[in-house]
Design brief:
The complex is a heterodimer of chains A (262) and B (514). Chain A has 262 residues and is mainly α. Chain A has one domain: MetI-like (MetI-like fold, Orthogonal Bundle). Chain A is built from 9 helices and no strands. In chain A, helix 1 packs across helix 2, helix 1 packs antiparallel against helix 9 and helix 2 packs antiparallel against helix 3. Helix content of chain B is 37%, strand content 25%. In chain B, the strands form 4 sheets. Chain B has a 6-stranded mixed sheet with strand order 6-7-8-3-9-10. In chain B, strands 16-17-18-13-19-20 form a 6-stranded mixed sheet, sandwiched between helices. In chain B, helix 7 packs parallel to helix 8, helix 8 packs across helix 20 and helix 16 runs parallel beside helix 17. The relative contact order of chain B is 0.10. Classes of the chains: A mainly alpha (262), B alpha/beta (514). Chains A and B meet through helix 6 and helix 7 of A and helix 13, strand 16, helix 14 and helix 16 of B.
Chain lengths: 262, 514
C-alpha cells in the first residue's frame, strides 16, 4: 500500500485545491479585471497572471480541474454500472444470451467513438450532461468484458455451487457472492479508466465539442494556452502540467490496485 | 560409500527455522523416503540443498563427495545440471505446454553437455520409462498425454542426463490410485538398473513399505523416527508415526461391521445421462455420464468410485441439482425431482466439495456462511433462531464457537472442511453428496473428517453419496460401492465383494492400488 501513498496524496491535493480555491480567491473564473489584462505570472493579486480577457488564471485552473474531475468521475461511474451489470448478466447466463450480448459489445467497439460523440452533440445539442453520457457509454465496453470473464470463472467455484444448493436465488448469488468478489478488479479497472476519460474529455474540449464557455476545463485551458504560447508560455505549461500530473498519478494508482487484486 | 549425505541440516526462511537437525544417508541404488503431514518440512528438506526453495540451509549436505552448503547459485546450477534429477507432483504444470515430448527430452539430455540425441535414442528413453508406442508419443504435447503418461515423461526427462541422485517430491500424489503403484514400481526399477539414489517425498505411506529402503518420519521440521521401511511400516515406535500410519486408509484392516442398517429407498437415479457440447465447430458432444442407474437408501452410504474423468463428480452434481442433466430422471422417495429444484427439494440433498477453501466465499464470515442455507431454506426463522442453529451446527462438527467470526482464510484446511460440512448439515438434509471430501487434506486431518462422517452416519442417520477415487477410503464407512469407468457403471456390490472378488478390470486395478 505504501507505493500507492504518494500518487494518492498528489491526486488528493489537486482535488482539494479544485474544491477550495474558487471560494478563497477574490476573482471568479469568468470575472474580468479590466486593469490587469495579460498580467504576467506573479503579479500582485494574480498569482498565475491573467489571460487575454483579463480573467484570473489560477481561478480558471481551479474551476477547470473541478469540471474535468467531475466529468471523469461521472462518466467512470456510468461506465462501471453499465459494464458490471452487462458483464454479470452475460457471464452468468452463458450460452446464446452471452453470445448475443458480447457480439453487441464487439459491434460497439468497432464503431468510431469520436463519430458517435459528434453525432450525439449534433442531434441533442451541446451540453455537459451529454459529455458524461457519451463517454460513459463507450467506456463500459472493456469493463463488461472484464466482468464477464470474472463471473464465468466464479460461477464454477464450489462456493457458488454451495450457495445454489442452499437455495439462494440467482439475484442473491449475484449480489452477495459474485459482486463482492469482482469488486476489487472492477475498482482497479475503474481507476485505470479515469485517465482515459480525462484524455477524451480534454480532446473533445480542445476541439470545441466538450465543455462550453464560460465554463472551462483543462482541455479548454490547454487549447487557449496553445493559441497564446509564444507570448505567455505559462498559460500552456501550468494547465498542461496539472493534467499530466493527474494522468500519471491516476495511472500509477490504477496499476498498483490492479496488481493487488487481479 | 554414500552417494548423498545430510548432516544436521537446517532450513530457515526469513529468520524462522522450519527444518532442524535432519541427517540421512543414501547409497547408490537406494531409496530413502521422507514421510509426514503437510507442513512438516519434507519438501524443504529435499529441495533446499539444491537452491530450489526460498530457504537458507545450515549444516552439511554432501553429494558425491562435494559439499553443497555455501555454494553460490552458479555452482548449484552446475550441480543440478550434472548430477541431480527432479520429479515434481504436478506433471502438467511442471512440463512446458508448447514443447513436445521430444523437445523436452532432447533439452534434458543435452543439459549436461551431451550430444543431441536422435529419434531412436529419444524413443528408447520413453521406452525405458514404460511409455507404450514411444515413437508416436514423441510428437505429442503435454496436454495430449494422460496424467500417468505425463509423469512418465517427466521421469524420463529427469533421468535423461544420467543423474546420480533423483529427487522425487510427491511424484504420485496427483495421480489416480491405480496409476500410483505403476509409477512407484517404475521408480524402483530405474534405480535398481542404473544405481541412482532416490530421495522420495511422499505421504502415500502404504506404498513406502514396498518401494523405499529406509523411511524418515518428519513432524514440524524435525525427524521423529527413522529406520528400515519394513520396520516402520509394521511397528512404528513414535506416537506420531503410529498416528500417521493409522490415518492412512488401507484394505488390510478389517471392514467395519457396525454400519447402521439402511432403510427404504431415498434417492434413485434412472438412466442418468450428461452430455457436454464439444468445443470447436464440428466437434461431437462429449458424453460424460452414460445411462447410470443408482439408488441410495435412507441412512446408507454409497461410494461412487472411479478415476479422474470417469464422470463421478458430474453424477454427484446432477443428483444434487447443481449440474446439467441431459436425460434420465432423479427420484426422491419415488417422486421425480424437477430439473429446477424447489426450495424444499434443495434442502434434502446438500453437497460437500473437495477443496474446502474454494467452497467457502472468501469474503464471508464463518457464521454467515453456515447461516446461508437457513436464510433461504428456513425463511420462518428469526435471526436469533438462526444464530442458535449455527451454534449447534458448529458443535456438531466439533468446532469452537469462537471461530464463528473468522474469515475462511484464517482457518486451517481441516477447519474449513468442517465449516463446509456444518453448512451442509444446518438445514437438516437427509442426504450428503461428498465429492472427494477428504482428498485435498493431509492424511491425519482426512482421518478426522472420516471419523466425523462416521459419527454423523451413526447419530443422525444421514445418507451419503461418497464420490472418491480411493477404494480404501470408501471401505471405512460405505455400505456399497459403484465402480465407474468412462461414464458407465462397470461393477457394483458390497465393499467386501468388490475387494475380495473384483470382476471388472477397473475394479481389479483399484483393489490392487489400495
Amino acid at each position: 500500500m505504501r507505493r500507492i501513498a504518494l500518487p494518492a496524496a498528489i491526486v488528493a491535493l489537486i482535488v482539494l485545491a479544485a474544491l477550495i480555491l474558487p471560494a478563497l480567491l477574490p476573482w471568479s473564473h469568468d470575472a474580468i479585471d479590466w486593469d490587469h489584462v495579460r498580467a504576467p505570472a506573479g503579479s500582485p493579486g494574480h498569482l498565475l497572471g491573467t489571460d487575454e480577457l483579463g480573467r484570473d488564471r489560477l481561478a480558471r485552473l481551479a474551476v477547470a480541474s473541478r469540471i474535468t474531475l467531475l466529468v471523469a468521475l461521472a462518466a467512470a461511474l456510468v461506465s462501471m454500472i453499465v459494464g458490471i451489470a452487462w458483464g454479470m448478466v452475460a457471464g452468468w447466463a452463458g450460452g446464446r444470451v452471452d453470445e448475443a450480448m458480447m457480439r453487441i459489445v464487439d459491434v460497439l467497439y468497432a464503431l468510431p467513438f469520436m463519430f458517435i460523440v459528434i453525432v450525439l452533440m449534433v442531434v441533442f445539442g451541446r451540453s455537459i450532461l451529454l459529455v458524461f453520457v457519451g463517454i460513459g457509454l463507450v467506456e463500459w465496453l472493456t469493463m463488461a468484458r472484464i466482468v464477464r470473464g470474472q463471473v464465468m470463472t466464479l460461477r464454477q467455484r464450489p462456493f457458488v455451487l454451495a450457495a445454489q444448493a442452499s437455495g439462494a436465488p440467482v439475484r442473491v448469488i449475484l449480489w452477495r457472492h459474485i459482486l463482492p468478489n469482482i469488486a476489487g478488479v472492477a475498482l482497479a479497472y475503474l481507476t485505470l479508466t479515469l485517465p482515459g476519460i480525462i484524455m477524451i474529455e480534454s480532446f473533445l474540449s480542445f476541439l470545441g465539442l466538450g465543455v462550453q464557455e464560460p465554463l472551462t476545463s483543462l482541455g479548454i485551458l490547454v487549447k487557449e494556452g496553445a493559441d497564446d504560447m509564444d507570448v505567455a508560455p505559462m498559460g500552456l505549461l501550468v494547465p498542461g502540467g496539472v493534467m499530466v500530473t493527474l494522468l500519471v498519478c491516476l495511472t500509477l494508482i490504477g496499476e498498483r490496485l490492479r496488481d493487488r487484486f487481479a | 560409500m554414500s552417494l548423498y549425505r545430510l548432516e544436521s541440516l537446517s532450513v530457515a526462511i526469513g529468520g524462522r527455522v522450519l527444518v532442524r537437525d535432519v541427517s540421512l544417508e543414501i547409497a547408490p541404488g537406494e531409496c530413502v523416503a521422507l514421510a509426514g503431514a503437510s507442513g512438516s518440512g519434507k519438501s524443504l528438506t529435499s529441495l533446499s540443498p539444491f537452491g530450489l526453495s526460498a530457504g537458507r540451509i545450515g549444516g552439511s549436505a554432501v553429494l558425491d563427495g562435494k559439499e553443497l552448503a555455501g555454494l553460490d547459485e552458479a555452482a548449484l546450477r552446475a550441480v543440478r545440471r550434472d548430477t541431480v534429477g527432479f520429479v515434481f507432483q504436478q506433471p502438467l504444470t511442471a512440463l512446458t505446454p508448447h514443447l513436445t515430448s521430444a523437445q523436452h527430452l532432447a533439452e534434458c539430455a543435452m543439459q549436461a553437455g551431451g550430444p543431441r540425441p536422435d529419434r531412436a535414442a529419444l524413443g528408447d528413453m520413453l521406452d525405458a520409462v514404460g511409455l507404450a508406442d514411444p515413437l508416436t508419443k514423441l510428437k505429442r504435447y503435454p496436454h495430449q498425454l494422460s496424467g500417468g503418461e505425463r509423469q512418465r515423461l517427466m521421469i524420463a526427462c529427469a533421468i535423461a542426463h544420467g543423474p546420480r541422485l533423483l529427487i522425487a517430491d510427491e511424484p504420485v500424489s496427483a495421480l489416480d490410485a491405480h496409476l500410483r503403484g505403476e509409477i512407484m514400481a517404475l521408480l524402483t526399477r530405474l534405480r535398481r538398473e542404473t544405481g541412482m539414489g532416490l530421495l522420495l517425498v511422499s505421504h502415500d505411506l502404504a506404498s513406502l513399505e514396498h518401494h523405499a529402503d529406509r523411511v524418515l518420519v518428519m513432524q514440524e521440521g524435525h525427524v521423529v523416527e527413522a529406520g528400515a521401511a519394513q520396520m516402520i511400516a509394521h511397528a512404528p515406535q513414535h506416537a506420531y508415526s503410529q498416528a500417521l500410519w493409522a490415518a492412512t486408509p488401507n484394505l488390510k484392516s478389517a471392514l467395519p461391521d457396525d454400519l447402521p442398517q439402511p432403510g427404504a429407498a431415498l434417492v434413485e437415479a434412472r438412466g442418468l445421462t450428461v452430455r457436454f457440447p464439444g468445443s470447436g465447430l464440428f466437434a461431437k458432444p462429449m458424453t460424460a455420464v452414460d445411462g447410470v442407474d443408482l439408488m441410495v437408501r435412507a441412512g446408507e452410504a454409497v461410494a461412487l468410485i472411479g478415476g479422474s474423468g470417469s464422470g463421478k463428480s458430474t453424477i454427484g452434481r446432477g443428483i444434487a441439482g447443481l449440474g446439467p442433466v441431459s436425460a434420465g430422471t432423479v427420484l426422491w422417495r419415488g417422486e421425480p425431482l424437477s430439473a429446477k429444484r424447489t426450495r424444499d427439494q434443495r434442502r434434502l440433498i446438500q453437497p460437500v466439495f473437495q477443496d474446502p477453501l474454494a467452497s467457502l466465499d472468501p469474503r464471508w464470515r464463518v457464521s454467515d456462511i453456515i447461516a446461508e442455507p437457513l436464510v433461504h431454506l428456513r425463511p420462518d426463522l428469526t435471526s436469533w433462531g438462526r444464530a442458535g442453529l449455527v451454534k449447534k451446527a458448529l458443535q456438531l462438527v466439533d468446532l469452537d464457537g469462537a471461530l464463528a467470526d473468522r474469515l475462511p482464510t484464517a482457518l486451517s484446511g481441516g477447519q474449513a472442511q468442517r465449516v463446509a460440512i456444518a453448512r451442509a448439515l444446518v438445514a437438516e438434509p437427509e442426504m450428503l453428496v461428498l465429492d472427494e471430501a477428504t482428498s485435498a487434506l493431509d492424511p491425519l486431518v482426512g482421518a478426522q473428517i472420516v471419523a466425523l462422517l462416521k459419527r454423523l452416519q451413526r447419530d443422525q442417520g444421514i445418507a451419503m453419496l461418497v464420490i472418491t477415487h480411493d477404494l480404501a477410503l470408501a471401505a471405512q464407512f460405505c455400505h456399497r460401492a459403484l465402480v465407474l469407468d468412462a461414464g458407465r457403471i462397470v461393477e457394483q456390490g458390497s465393499i467386501a465383494d468388490l475387494v475380495n472378488h473384483p470382476q471388472a478390470a477397473m475394479t481389479q486395478r483399484l483393489v490392487a492400488a489400495s
